Amino acid sequence: MATSDPSQFSAESYFATQPPPSTLEQDIAGVRTFVAQQRELGKKVVLVTSGGTTVPLELNVVRFLDNFSAGTRGATSAEYFLKAGYAVLFMHRQFSLQPFSRHYSHSTNPFLDLLEIEPPAVATDPLNITVTPSKRPELLEVLTSYKEAHQSGLLHTLTFVTVNDYLWLLRAVSQELSVLGRGVLYYLAAAVSDFFLPRQKLSEHKIQSGKGSLLIEMDQVPKILKPMVDEWTPDGYIVSFKLETDPALLIPKARAAIERYGHQIVIGNDLHTRKYEVVFVSRVPGSPDVHDISNSWLRIDPHAIDDRGHPKEIEEDIVAELVSRHQAWIDATSGGT
Length: 337
Ligand code: 9Z3
Fold this sequence. Notes:
Layout: H1 11-17, H2 24-41, E1 45-50, E2 55-56, E3 64-65, H3 72-83, E4 87-93, E5 115-118, E6 128-131, H4 136-151, E7 155-160, H5 163-177, E8 184-188, E9 195-196, E10 219-220, H6 225-232, E11 237-244, H7 247-261, E12 265-270, E13 277-283, E14 293-299, H8 314-333
Parallel strand pairs: 1-4, 1-8, 4-7, 8-11, 11-12
Antiparallel strand pairs: 2-3, 5-6, 9-10, 12-13, 13-14
């Protein structure tokens, strides 16, 4: 049931009234196996959420609202977490970018452009397909990392489409991961809708035109960081992202989130500069004052080249910073053991 304000769902009333996705149990069985494997290997695990969430306007859905996100931040970061030795649970919007295959996105670098048709040595044999020689070194590098990640079982993928799928999955996945305690980093980069239409208010069939303008009143999506921190995974290291388009709001909103939810880090990013600068907002470690919050900017030169000769990606530095902060936090909270 909704709380006193009927348009204000708590996390509890949300999950009591909105139906789970039909694939939830099957997805969680896969996560359970993945968690058991990583536990045995003693691996640190990161849950990366990535891509936008939709809000269907009809039960038989023809129209939906979407949130901006290509999934670049999540897919890129997942690769750097794997490189840093983490096992990665990659929870992404269906058809958004994925680690490794992102390098060959159909719009920016279609894979058909990597291939050549070669005549066979014997005229009666079928035509051959080969990789364009200039594209081979990069393809080999990406393919090697891709195969390694899959064969080692260190990359497990889950998909969502709607904000409802996302919320149910996030709750169930973080509850499963909580058995790994402080060794789990949550990297919440998905662009999550703030508003939704509860199942009870959804029109069953396609909304008909012909009655003039369409007015839709949406409910607020419950703030799930609070139960995530307090109940679902109290020992996890939680990093959320805050997206704004007004730069003046970025730090105040990020600070407010840290104060309200008490998780470890908010990474603030502005829509237009997100590929070159982000700000880490977190409580000052060891300070007795919970309002003692610091900001530190991480910036890269937009024209920088990394040590493999590719354009530098800010996610490389974001992940390096988080890996070191996560370890420092584990050390500090383990009481020196
Ligand atoms: C982000 O801020 C991500 O960095 C981006 C990445 C969505 C900007 P792309 O996928 O973009 O690389 O194209 N994600 C979080 C956005 C969000 O919904 N945050 C919530 C909020 O701001 C809090 S969890 O309220």
